[in-house]
Amino acid sequence: MNKKSALSLLFVLFLILNQVAFAETNKDETRSDDFRIELPKIIISDIPSEITIHYQSDGDSVLVKLNQTEMWHKADTDKIVVPFVFKGNDRIQVSISEQSRAVNYSAIPLWMSILPPLIAILMALVFKEVFSALFVGLFTGTLIIFTYQDISFFTAFFKAIFAISDTYIIQSLADTGHISIIVFSMLIGAMVNLITQNGGMQGVVNKLSRFANSSRSGQIVTWILGVLIFFDDYANTLVVGNTMRPVTDRLKISREKLAYIVDSTAAPVASIAMITTWIGIELSYIQSATVQINIDESAYSIFLNSLPTRFYPFFTLFFILMIVIMKRDFGPMYKAEQRAKSEEKISEVKQKNNDEVESIEISDEIPTRWYNAGIPVMVVIFGTFAGLIYTGWSSEVWNDSAVSFGTKLSHIIGASDSYLALLWSSISAVLVAAALSIGQRILSLKKTIDALVKGFKTMLTAILILILAWALADITKDLHTADFISKILIATEVPPQFLPSFTFILSALIAFSTGSSWGTMAILYPLILPASWALCHSAGLADAQSMDIFYITVSAILAGSVLGDHCSPISDTTILSSLASSCNHIEHVRTQLPYALTVGSVAILLGLIPAAYGVSSWILIPTGFLTLFLIVKFFGKK
Question: What are the transmembrane regions (predicted)?
C-alpha cells in the first residue's frame, strides 16, 4: 500500500468513526411526541439548572409532579421549564395527569471542572510547550463532558476529539470580539513588518537611542511608553512591545524583561486610568451588583471611590521602576538578564525566544526616517482614542453642565465600542504606512504587499494560541470552574475586614485558571459585592464602614483578576505580551511569576488588610512603595 492510499484509508476511517460517535445518542425513556423530558446538554452536580418538560395539553392547568414535588402549571404553551439542581447519578420521574415519564442522568462532579485548566497550566509550566498543553486541557474537558452522557468510553473519546474543533474552537471564533482581536493583531503585525522594511523602525531606534543609551534608560523609556498608552491594554501591549524590541535587543535587555515590562504596564495602567476601554464593562458589572442591594450611589462614583485602594496596579508600576532604576533582579529574571548580557550568547537567546518571527534585515539603500514608523504608530494611538470617543459619543452627557470635563470623557469612553476603535485605527495605520512607503518610492507596490502579508504570517502562532485559550475558557465556563473555586473559598467564614483580601485571592485564582480578567470580573462582581454588603451588616458594621469595605472589595476583584491574568500561561494578554516582545511564552510566564506574586503579597499585607481596618491609602501606598524598594534592595542582585 502506497503512502497516498494509506492516507486515504485513514481519512475514510476518521469519517466512519465520526459518524459512529455522533450517531449514538443518550439513552432515556422520554421519547414521545406529546410528553417528553429534555435535560441540559451538560449536567453539573450542585449547580442550579433547568428541566424542560414537553407536554401537549388542551389549555387547562395541569398538575406536574417532579419526583416528590408537586406544582401547578398553566398549560398555555407546549413546554414547562422547571428549575432543578442535579445531584450525582439519579433518576427523574415526571407525572402529568395519568401519564408518567422517567429519565436517568449522570451529573458531572463539580470538582472535576478544575481539571482542564489545571492540567493545561501544569503541562505548560512543566513541558514549556503551550500548544500541546492547551490541546490536552481542551481534550480533558470535552472527555469529561461526554463521559457523563451515558455512552461508551470509545464513543466519548472520539466525540471529545471532534468537539474540540466543531464546538469549542468554532464557538470561540464565532465571538465577534475574538475575531476583532485576531484582525487587529494581524493588522498590527502587518504594520510593524512594513515600518521595519521601509526603514522607519530603524529610524525610531536611532532617535530613541539618544534617550535609551543604556540598559537602564532603555527600560525606563519602555516603562514610560507603557504608561502613556493607557487607554487600552491590547493596543499598549502590541505597540510598545513591537516598537521597543529592536531598542532593547541592541541594549542587551532580555526579551523576558521586555515582555514583563510590557505585560505589567498594560493591564495595570488600563485598570486605574479613568479613561480606558475597561471602564464601560466594569461599570456595567458594578451596576448589576448595586441593583441587588439597592445602593443609591452611581456605578461611576463607586469606581472613583475604589481607585485609591487598587494597590496591586499601583505597586506593580512602582516595582518595575525600582528594579529598573536599581538595576537589580531576582529569580528566573536574573538568569535571563545574565544570558542577555553575554555577548557570545545573545544571538542564541534571540533565536530561542523568537521561533515564530524571522530576523528582518533591510537594505543599506533604504533611508531610515523615523516618521515612517512614528506616524503609523501615532495613527494607532490617536486613532484608537478618536474611535473610542466617536463610538461612545453622547450629546446628553457632553452637554451636562453639572459634570466635569474628565467625567464626561470617562463616561463617553466607558460607553464606547473598543473593538471597533481598535480595528479602525489599525487599518488606518496600515494604509498610512503603505502610503508612506510607496509615496516616497522606498518600496514598490509589490514589496509593500509582500511585507504586509509577511506581517500577517508572523501573528499566526499567537493567533493559534489565542484560539485554543479562548476554547479552553469556554470549557471552563460550561463546567462551572469558577463556581467550584468560589464555593470552596466562600464557604470559609471570614470577618468582614478580611473579605477584600479573600476576594483578591479568589479573583486571582479564577483569573489564573480561566485566563480571563474580564471573565473573572463578570463572575465575581455580581456574586461578591452583594455578599460583602450583607456580611458587613450581619457583623454589625455601620453603613459608612460597610461602604468603605464595599469600595475596597470592588478594587480587590479587579486587582486580583489582573494578578491572576499576569500569572496565567493561558491568558490572552500574557500571550500577546510574549508575541509583541518575540519572547518564548513559557519563559515569559516563568520569569514574571515571582515578581507578580511578590507584589501581590505586599498588596494584601500592606494594602488590603490594613485598608479594611480603616488605614488611609495616603499612608498605605507610600508604605508599600518603601517595602518594595527594600525587597528589591536586599533580595535583588546587580
Answer: 108-127, 134-158, 178-196, 258-281, 310-326, 370-393, 419-439, 451-473, 504-528, 595-613, 619-636
Residues 6+ apart with CB under 8 A from 501: 556, 604, 608, 609, 612
Q: Is 636 left (phi over 0), alpha (psi -120 to 50) or beta?
A: beta
Identity of the residue numbered 465: I
What are the pLDDT digits (tens) for 416-459? 777 788 788 889 989 999 999 998 888 889 989 998 998 888 77
Beta strands at 79-85 and 48-55: parallel, antiparallel or unpaired: antiparallel
DSSP of 396-444, one letter per residue?
HHHT-TTS-HHHHHHHHHHTS-HHHHHHHHHHHHHHHHHHHHHHTTSS-
Q: How many CA atoms lie within 13 A of 522 on its CB side?
A: 10
Q: Provide CB contacts within 8 A for 153, sequence distance 6+.
A: 147
Closest residue by Cα to residue 272 from 312, 320, 323: 312
CB 331 within 8 A of CB 591: yes
Residue 351 has pLDDT above 60, yes or no: no
Q: Which residues pair with 477 in a beta bridge?
A: none
* Separation CA 130–CA 559 (nearest Å): 26
What's the rounded Cα separation, in Å, for the pair 373 and 128?
A: 34
Starting at the earlier edge strand, list the strands of the sheet with 89-96: 69-74, 61-66, 89-96, 99-106
Beta bridge mates, 188: none
Strand order in the sheet with 79-85: 35-38, 48-55, 79-85
Name the most confidently modeled range: 14-23, 147-156, 337-346, 423-432.
423-432
* Contacting residues for 93 by C-beta, under 8 A, at least 6 apart: 65, 66, 67, 100, 101, 102
pTM, two decimals, is 0.67
Distances in whole angstroms, Cα of residue 422 to Cα of each of 183, 385, 400, 427, 466? 10, 9, 28, 9, 17
Query: 265, 503 in Cβ contact below 8 A?
Result: no
Hey, CA dihedral for 446, 451, 455, 458, is it positive or negative?
positive
From 632, 592, 605, select the one nearest 256 (Cα to Cα).
Answer: 592
Residues in the chain: 638
Contact 68, 87 (CB under 8 A): no
CB-CB contact of 569 with 589 (8 Å): yes
Given a contact cutoff of 8 angstroms between Cβ atoms, the answer to whether 456 and 189 are in contact is yes
The DSSP 8-state label assigned to residue 168 in this structure reads I
Q: Please tell me the distance from the alpha carbon of residue 629 to that of residue 617, in angstroms, as a whole number.
A: 18
For residue 180, pLDDT beyond 60: yes
Residues in a beta bridge with 95: 65, 100
Q: Count CB-CB contacts under 10 A for residue 229.
A: 25
Going along the chain from its start, the domains and CATH numbers come out as: 1-30+110-174 (no CATH), 35-107 (2.60.40)
Grid coordinates given for 605: 499585607
